[in-house]
Specification:
- The complex is a heterotrimer.
- Chain B has 11 helices and 8 strands.
- Chain B is α/β, with parallel strands linked by helices.
- Chain B has a single domain (about 30-325), classed as 3-Layer(aba) Sandwich (Rossmann fold).
- Chain C folds into 3 domains: about 1-245, Rossmann fold; about 250-375, Rossmann fold, CATH 3.40.50; about 380-405, no CATH class.
- Chain C has 15 helices and 16 strands.
- Chain C has helices at about 5-15, 30-45, 60-70, 80-85, 90-95, 120-125, 140-155, 180-185, 215-245, 270-275, 295-300, 325-330, 355-365, 380-390, 395-405; strands spanning about 1-5, 20-25, 50-55, 75-80, 100-105, 130-135, 160-165, 175, 205, 250-255, 260-265, 285-290, 290, 310-315, 340-345, 370-375.
- Classes of the chains: A alpha/beta, B alpha/beta, C alpha/beta.
- At the B-C interface, β1, β2, α3 and α5 of B face β3, α3, α5 and β9 of C.
Chain lengths: ~190, ~325, ~400
């Protein structure tokens, strides 16, 4: 990843899945890595279950723009039911990354064309909800997905992500989430190869 | 040189300056050393009930607060006639902000005192009926609900007098105002409208709610003293006849207030935390007509014989108050 | 200390370090995170000697602020949009009484139609109420401006509002250097009022003033507000000595030799700078931090030599045109400078780098009208106008436009 460019992430999910928090944690992790970063949600009246987006930009130069991420370097989809409802891949860079929370493969999800038009290993799925249930005890996939994103794109270090999570949540919650993130990160190399 | 012609008046036990009473039983107003928080020189009308009540209330509150009293005033007659530029008749720290917000401003003053640990300085908010029951109701209710340490006094002359006698939520049924003229099928203010602010205050269950009139100085002063002895939100509702707006003789102000109470139309009582307490019983009850006749705002009811039903309805209101508040009247009409 | 945190959080922490004594609070999107954070700090006693009053409306909030400030307390509150309008009467009252209340306005559009997203129509609607108006370009500025606002307000006995774009700044996470409590204490002395309700020295505050003196009172208010221009610079210099961070009434960007310049307020300035950097033409920008009083001298100086000024406004005056444009034109009086108004970002519509570049392109090729609306959807507008021509009972405009927008692809 070029250190001169701004890496822009767009996260899609539904209200209650922690997509807004995910963008914030990502930006804090980038800050802890010594980078410049910005995070904000697509703002709307809050309602559980409604589609939401959040954004995170990471750069080595101060970030001045505040428009929504229209040309993402990476798209994270926390809820696969959005895939054929919302245009989640709009503006995705040709060499961009896609991370989807699902136990199914991208092909199973009907994303063959996306896989074909992007570099190998850039479009992956990770069963984040299952991992979260296992490590955190709740189906909250957000931090788990960040672990996968870190491994997939290198946008932040796992260490910084862990620190950001520990600063934000009480120990019991943080512990589980950190384990889920690590587990997802470990999965990435294999699914990227598949 | 001949001796000055001094007239000695024999007066009853309820008079203000009764020299026959021991010192400790005299009213605040009888004290030549009283503070005169609202001092002379203001521009109130001759016979203004509000000026009288404000003087009574402020001087007693000032003494109870040992001189550490701050007053917040809503826009209205009192505010206008007491501060004619470039003069002011207030001898206490006094703040006028807007029409609707006396209660909120007082909340802010009380908050500032609490933030710096000043428990000695007391806050008194005042407004007319319009500024209290209508446009100021939201702010007042908020102050009550939070139980902010403020004594709010409403001087009720039953209409927006300062702006030319327009109807307010406190205007009684059948009364003529500029926006409820004595014309048409139902002349004057319609029945079935209006707010009873003391009852609304009681519904908030604040520490102290009381009604009073300018006819009973001692009762009014005692209620101010009681209110000042308590903390939290307190509300005092004082009936203050307005000669201009009521169309009554300036010299009738106190008499009319007494008739309002004695007819049962204006019940005088106290309540704590929503529970009714002591009431001023009716001694020498009068029929409502005796109270209404001296006021031109009710003149249309007596022009011909066609308003007997209205008079009956007003009498019924008085009867209902007597029953509801247990005013103990022996006479019935 | 430099941290990555939410704009609202940074403002709340900083306001707490300013030691407010009374904070009346009423919630409205998107200011909620600020007052919630301050309330939590009072409840946990992280912020001591402060009364947090949950009031029943914004009108009550500003009214309680008036009472508290008149009683000598350092007072703070926050609002936006409808809430700012609801307290409009009290805004004028606070300014007229000369009470140095500080308030955050989380800029948001005003309805109807109801809209919770960012534009500057709220604070612009109150530009004449007599308050100092400061606009934050980013969350660092928002943070620093609050400390400066208390000092400036108390110096002049004039209330001050710090405007920060709702959601765009309030809900954004970015790196912010929070001023240490010791620094704030050094910069901000205890509040010493010019007038106060004091039982030991009673005064009458808020008396009526008639025709014989009202003009003079209002003139003095205008004179006092104008002092904020030079006092801002002086107090900003003090702040910079303590923190190394510089605030200025206006912020020029690449104006040397620029023939075209974009003037704006608030966070859109960042997008404008990014857009300009991508161009070869000599285009510069001027961000205004101080809006009331209007820093006419600084604006005039900064735009010296500029032939075409584009004022990018997040609000406008229906039936007339730009709001800030009028002030800019007045400041440039006597010069042949062309001033165009571009109304953008209303109701939270994003102002993109690409749109700004297109706008500048139109300007430099002489195709920018005197007044235009950036990214206006002509197709939807035309459809609604045709509908109204055809049918008398055309229905609620908001409802129609949403249907037009949904049915027509971009």
């Amino acid at each position: 990843m070029s250190s001169r460019a701004t890496f822009e992430v767009r996260l899609h999910g539904r209200g209650g899945q922690g997509v807004v928090t995910a963008a914030e944690l990502l930006s804090v992790a980038a800050f802890l890595d010594g980078r410049e970063s910005q995070a904000f949600p697509s703002f709307g009246s809050e309602r559980m279950g409604a589609p939401v987006m959040s954004f995170c930009r990471v750069s080595d130069r101060p970030i001045r723009v505040r428009e929504p991420v229209l040309k993402p370097s990476a798209v994270v989809v926390a809820d696969a039911t959005l895939l054929h409802h919302v245009d989640v891949f709009s503006g995705l860079a040709a060499d961009g990354f896609v991370l989807i929370n699902s136990a199914f493969s991208p092909t199973d999800l009907g994303l063959e064309e996306l896989v074909a038009t992007h570099p190998a290993g850039h479009v992956i799925t990770v069963p984040a909800t299952d991992l979260a249930r296992e490590h955190v005890g709740r189906p909250l996939p957000n931090v788990c997905l960040l672990g996968a994103l870190a491994a997939l794109t290198g946008i932040v270090s796992l260490g910084a992500l862990e620190q950001a999570v520990r600063e934000r949540f009480p120990a019991a919650v943080a512990d589980g989430n950190v384990r889920a993130a690590a587990a997802a990160a470990t999965l990435v190399p294999e699914v990227a190869r598949a | 040189m001949t001796a000055p012609d001094v007239k000695f008046y024999q007066v009853g036990s309820r008079a203000v300056g009764n020299r026959l009473l021991p010192l400790d039983q005299r009213s605040e107003q009888a004290d030549p050393q009283r503070h005169n928080a609202l001092t002379s020189g203001h521009r109130a009308c001759q016979g203004c009930g509000e000026a009288l009540a404000a003087r009574y209330v402020l001087d007693t509150a000032y003494t109870e607060a040992k001189g550490r009293l701050v007053s917040v005033n809503a826009t209205g007659c009192l505010e206008v006639f007491s501060t004619p530029y470039p003069e002011s008749s207030w001898q206490v720290p006094w703040l006028h902000s807007l029409f609707a917000n006396a209660a909120s401003v007082a909340t802010g003053v009380a908050a500032a005192l609490e933030a710096r640990g000043d428990t000695g300085t007391r806050v008194l908010a005042q407004g007319g009926d319009g500024g209290t029951v209508d446009i100021g109701l939201a702010c007042l209710s908020g102050m009550f609900e939070r139980n902010d340490d403020v004594l709010y006094v409403c001087y009720d002359n039953e209409a927006y007098m300062n702006t030319g006698v327009q109807r307010s939520g406190a205007t009684p049924p059948a009364a003529r105002t500029a926006t409820t003229e004595a014309v048409g099928v139902q002349p004057g203010n319609p029945f079935g409208t209006g707010k009873d602010l003391p009852r609304i205050a009681m519904a908030h269950e604040i520490p102290y709610v009381a009604t009073a009139t300018v006819a009973d100085l001692r009762d009014l002063e005692a209620k101010v003293r009681t209110a000042m002895s308590l903390r939290g939100a307190r509300y005092l509702h004082v009936l203050v006849p307005c000669p201009l707006g009521w169309g009554s003789a300036p010299s009738d102000t106190i008499a009319l207030a007494r008739l309002a109470q004695r007819s049962g139309l204006f019940p005088v009582y106290e309540a704590r935390h929503g529970e009714l307490g002591a009431v001023l019983p009716l001694r020498g009850r009068v029929p409502v007509e005796e109270y209404l006749r001296p006021q031109r705002r009710y003149a249309h009811l007596f022009r011909d014989g066609s308003h007997a039903a209205t008079l009956e309805a007003l009498q019924h209101l008085a009867d209902r108050n007597i029953a509801r508040y247990g005013l103990g009247a022996e006479e019935t009409f | 200390m430099r941290e990555q945190l939410e704009g609202s959080r940074a403002v709340a922490e900083t306001v707490a370090r300013c030691r407010p004594q009374v904070v009346p609070a009423y919630p409205i999107t998107p200011q909620t995170h600020i007052v919630e954070a301050v309330g939590a700090m009072v409840k946990s006693e992280a912020l001591e000697n402060c009364r947090f009053v949950t009031v029943e409306s914004e009108f009550a909030a500003m009214s309680a602020a008036i009472g508290a400030s008149a009683m000598g307390a350092r007072t703070y509150t926050a609002t936006a949009s409808q809430g700012l309008l609801y307290m409009a009467e009290a805004l004028y009252n606070a300014a007229g009484l000369g009470l140095p209340i500080v308030m955050t306005v989380a800029n948001r559009a005003i309805g109807a139609p109801i809209n919770i997203w960012n534009d500057q129509s709220d604070s612009m609607s109150q530009r004449d109420c007599g308050w100092i108006q400061l606009y934050a370009a980013d969350n660092q500025a928002a943070t620093d401006l609050h400390v400066l606002a208390f000092r400036l307000a108390e110096q002049l006995s004039v209330p001050a509002m710090v405007c920060m774009d709702g959601f765009v700044l309030t809900h954004a996470f970015e790196p912010i250097d929070l001023p240490e409590p010791e620094i704030v204490d050094r910069y901000l002395p205890t509040y010493r009022p010019r007038q106060v309700l004091d039982p030991d020295d009673p005064v009458t505050i808020g008396a009526m003033v008639g025709p014989e003196a009202f003009t003079e009172v209002r003139y003095l208010a205008h004179h006092q507000l104008q002092q904020a221009d030079h006092w801002f610079t002086e107090l900003a210099d003090d702040w910079s000595l303590l923190t190394g961070r510089h605030l200025a009434t206006v912020n020029p960007y690449r104006l040397d030799g620029a023939r075209t310049a974009v003037v704006s307020l608030g966070s859109v300035g960042g997008t404008v700078a990014e857009a300009i950097d991508g161009l070869v033409e000599p285009v510069g920008a001027l961000g205004l931090t101080l809006y009331r009083p209007f820093p006419a001298g600084a604006v005039r100086d900064a735009l010296d030599g500029v032939e075409h000024v584009i004022v990018l406004e997040r609000a406008f005056s229906p039936g007339a045109g730009g709001v800030v444009s009028a002030d800019v034109r007045a400041a440039l009086a006597g010069r042949p400078t062309r001033v165009s108004t571009v109304v953008a970002g209303l109701g939270g519509r994003s102002v993109t780098t690409a749109s700004v570049q297109r706008m500048i392109g139109a300007a430099t090729t002489g195709r920018l009208p005197a007044l235009s609306f950036l990214d206006l959807r002509d197709d939807i507008v035309d459809r609604e106008l045709a509908h109204r021509d055809a049918v008398h009972r055309s229905g609620p405009p908001a409802h129609n436009l949403l249907r037009h927008a949904a049915s027509r692809p971009r």
